[in-house]
């Protein structure tokens, strides 16, 4: 006999781990003021390293943004009739399903992570530490927020 609740529990554990990672990002951003020299060193390494970090952050941000667009589009896509009317599924009644909601939330999460990546790139381009702290806050708050939403949306006792 298979345990049908096991995949849901594994997903909830994964969301919990991601939640802890978001809290860690926020904690690092808060502690950044304790070591301003270290933060300045991270924000302004050698020019070639800064260019590579900024370029990498831009590429990652673009990839995250494209992935977000695909997920959000996939969660909202519905079959349409030739006249453009949305076909309603009798079982779903044309409403968004739980799986679609999870995909939508994850897509929105990727939009904010892309914004964080672009912000970090700006920090390395400008050689300023503040955008790096802002990027940590954007990513951390977004991960914590969407993780809570996914945990609440995936509760097993409906």
Describe this structure in words.
It is built from 5 helices and no strands. The protein is mainly alpha-helical. It has one domain (6-153). Helix 1 runs antiparallel to helix 5, helix 3 runs antiparallel to helix 4 (98-126) and helix 4 (98-126) runs antiparallel to helix 5 (130-153). The longest helix is centred in the middle third of the chain and has 30 residues, at 47-76. It is flat, with a radius of gyration of 20 Å.
What attributes characterize this protein structure?
158 residues, mainly alpha, flat
Summarize the structure.
This protein has 158 residues and is an all-alpha fold. The protein is 74% helix and 0% strand.
Write the layout of secondary structure elements.
Blueprint: H1 6-31, H2 36-43, H3 47-76, H4 98-126, H5 130-153
Helix pairs in contact: 1-5, 3-4, 4-5
The quaternary structure here is single chain
Helix percent reads over 70%
Order of helices and strands: HHHHH
- Which residues sit in consecutive blocks of at least 5 with pLDDT less than 50? none
Gap between N and C termini, in Å?
Answer: 24 Å
Strand percentage lies at under 5%
